[in-house]
Amino acid sequence: MKITKSLGIWMDHSEAHLMALTGDSIETTIITSDSSHHNTESTSNSNENIMHNKENHSAASYYKSIGKIIREYDDVILFGPTTAKNELANILKDDHLYEDIKIEIKSSEKMSENQEHAFVKDYFKVH
């Protein structure tokens, strides 16, 4: 019988907490988005299109780095307070590399590390 590899991801647009569940223990990895660093230039001095393109490229890079880790798992729960989890899920569902991975989305508020771990353990206990 194959052991299911489970991953919980709390995320917003600036940070993702990837929690790999093994038995009763959780190992957390944090990935931050480059777009979370605010540009100090005033918008009147910079081209808005260039800034928008940089933000889109940064978000794509952020989602790609999370997606690369997700490929190593069988069962994934994405949760968090923003639409970032939905944006990532939409990108992944269009890629055949993720078709055999069960990915579910849940809304949640900002959580402490202990609350995130409890959420992930409870979610996978039911599944």
Task: Please characterize this protein's 3D structure.
This protein has 127 residues and is an alpha/beta fold. It is built from 3 helices and 5 strands; from the N terminus they run βββαβαβα. It has helices at 48-70, 84-93, 113-126; strands at residues 6-11, 15-22, 25-32, 75-80, 102-107. The protein has a 5-stranded mixed β-sheet, sandwiched between helices. The longest helix has 23 residues, at 48-70. The two termini are 16 Å apart. Mean pLDDT is 87; it is low at 36-45.
Main sheet, how many strands, which sense, barrel? 5 strands, mixed
Averaged pLDDT: 87
Poorly predicted runs: 36-45
Helix share, percent: 25-40%
Class by helix and strand content?
Answer: alpha/beta
Number of helices: 3
Characteristic terms for this protein:
127 residues; alpha/beta; 5-stranded mixed β-sheet; 3 helices; 37% helix
Produce a short descriptive summary.
This protein is α/β, with parallel strands linked by helices and 127 residues long. The chain is built from 3 helices and 5 strands; from the N terminus they run E-E-E-H-E-H-E-H.
